[in-house]
Design brief:
The complex is a heterodimer of chains A (about 110) and B (about 110). Chain A has strands at about 5, 10-15, 20-25, 30-35, 45-50, 55, 65-70, 75-80, 85-95, 105, 110-114. Chain A is an all-beta fold. In chain A, strands 2, 4, 5, 6, 9, 10 and 11 form a seven-stranded mixed beta sheet that branches. Classes of the chains: A mainly beta (about 110), B mainly beta (about 110).
């Protein structure tokens, strides 16, 4: 079965650079969620999109922005990168309809800021 | 969303049942109990969820007390590949993009030979 695809798997950037993370949800899933997980931390919710509109917002820095495109894939754009942005970034998707449906997570993008 | 309390860590012998408890004494009537797990550096994985009845699927069983203030996730025959952090999450499910999960401090389960 198709899963959530994230790219790239690994990304190395310098301080003050920009980064773009991509997420391709499971086909026919209409909602995408982004999470950040620092070393030794639990996943923290950043932002979500439903039907290409931002639906919910968590602890996402102002330097980050995201959007969901017409094909439902999503991109997380990160600017002025800081050392503290080094983390695993997960994307998850969920299907339409049932409100108690589970979330399906991708394998994540490991971002290292040097 | 209701707050949950889980043991920081647990051990289990391979082949034995792993029973992971979760306290959610402030749970409200329309909140579900969800269990996810995260194997090292992988994306969290859904295990099971329930409202008030016990639930079973191919991965695990979920036992919810009658007063709904606590629950237990049971992995009937733990294997080394079940070593992971297990998260108990209580929330009201919404539709339309409001279904985020809030991860608290889970239980680190170590399955040993």
């Amino acid at each position: 079965a198709a899963g959530v695809i994230q790219s790239p798997r690994h990304l190395i950037k310098e301080k003050r650079e920009t980064a773009t993370l991509k997420c391709y949800p499971i086909p026919r899933h209409d909602t995408v969620y982004w999470y950040q997980q620092g070393p030794g931390q639990d996943p923290q919710f950043l932002i979500s999109f439903y039907e290409k509109m931002q639906s919910d917002k968590g602890s996402i820095p102002d330097r980050f922005s995201a959007q969901q495109f017409s094909d439902y894939h999503s991109e997380l754009n990160m600017s002025s990168l800081e050392l503290g942005d080094s983390a695993l970034y997960f994307c998850a998707s969920s299907p339409p309809g049932q409100s108690n449906e589970k979330l399906f997570f991708g394998s994540g993008t490991q971002l290292s800021v040097l | 969303d209701a707050k949950t309390t889980q043991p920081t860590s647990m051990d289990c012998a391979e082949g034995r049942a792993a029973n992971l408890p979760c306290n959610h004494s402030t749970i409200s009537g329309n909140e579900y109990v969800y269990w996810y797990r995260q194997i090292h550096s992988q994306g969290p994985q859904y295990i099971i969820h329930g409202l008030k009845n016990n639930e079973t699927n191919e991965m695990a069983s979920l036992i919810i007390t009658e007063d709904r203030k606590s629950s237990t996730l049971i992995l009937p025959h733990a294997t080394l590949r079940d070593t992971a952090v297990y998260y108990c999450i209580v929330r009201v499910p919404f539709s339309g993009g409001y279904n985020k999960l809030i991860f608290g401090a889970g239980t680190r389960l170590a399955v040993h030979p």
